[in-house]
Amino acid sequence: MCKIMKIAIFGATGPSGTLLVEECLGSGHSVVALARNPDKLTIKHENLTVVKSDIQTQEELVSPLTGCDAVMSCLGSRQSIWSTVTLYTDTVKVITGAMRAAGVSRFVAMASWGTKYEAGLPFVIKWILRPLILKNILLNMGQMEDYLAECGDIDYTVVRTAELTKDESTGREVTGVDGQFVPDAAARIPRRDVVRFMMRCVVNGEWMKKCVSIGIK
Question: 22's torsion region: left (phi>0), alpha (psi -120 to 50) or beta?
Fold first, then answer.
């Protein structure tokens, strides 16, 4: 029987964050959902606490994070072809600062395949997404990963995903590899499968201080 945990979730009102809240609660864990607009989270549960928070203010986050066993982030930026993206580095610095003050070390966050160049990257990522459509987002995700790698006191896991879908769970095993993509895996993955993998990382302590790419073969 797995340990019952208290988990703080950022991005809880987004499409992946909402599923992560449901997954945590469904597994018997307590959840502190931090949201700029709490009314957007319609889930009601006795083990759910929803906190209105400003992700830009570290001091506001310390109290909600105190007593938590882990912090998870599904924060994401909108596609930005022309503008510089700093959301991932801006937020991770605030979150990890608040975690230190609250005495929490476990952190799991979402990213994407192709945050860095790697030989063998799929054609679409190498020639379309990285240089064009997601250039600025992937760049900043990679900078977030670099920042976490320098945080010796944060037990982080960055989960790099294929393209996210709203489909139901495949019910198949999610493959995790140490690299920028999963060879021979589908180019898309249901969000539900992603959040279940993220939960597994927290509960089982998997992929500690690692960036892991996941996919469905």
Answer: alpha
